[in-house]
Design brief:
This protein has about 120 residues and is mainly beta. It contains 1 helix and 11 strands.
């Protein structure tokens, strides 16, 4: 059974930092593409960042490029999202997602599985 468990969300002031973690299980971690998505209140879910675990090739949306960093730890089956210089508009539920065999995240396509999410709130 594929499981994605996010953690690390919370309340932070604008300009602050948070690191989200996504603990993955139930699939071959080293051959998957894992992405971070977010959904703000009243808005659609948007793609934030992607990483191919076999080579670490990252993708960032324009809104977070230069502020967020995605990384993976194969030994821990975990993907991280380091978020710096946070803005109130970054407030959202952040979801971890996996494409088991392809690179859908890089093309904006749907992923195979999503986690339950972790809430990030950035105050002004």
């Amino acid at each position: 059974e594929v499981q994605l468990v996010e953690s690390g969300g919370g309340l932070v002031q604008a300009g602050g930092s948070l690191r989200l973690s996504c603990l993955a299980s139930g699939f071959t971690f080293g051959s998957a593409t894992i992405g971070w998505y977010r959904q703000a209140p009243g808005k659609e879910r948007d793609r934030v960042s992607c990483i191919r675990t076999r080579d670490g090739d990252p993708f960032y949306s324009d809104s977070v490029n230069g502020r967020f960093t995605i990384s993976s730890d194969k030994a821990k089956n975990t993907v991280y999202l380091q978020m710096n210089s946070l803005k109130p508009e970054d407030t959202a539920i952040y979801y971890c997602a996996v494409d088991l065999h392809g690179s859908s995240c890089y093309f904006g396509y749907g992923m195979d599985y999503y986690g339950k999410g972790t809430l990030v709130t950035v105050s002004s």
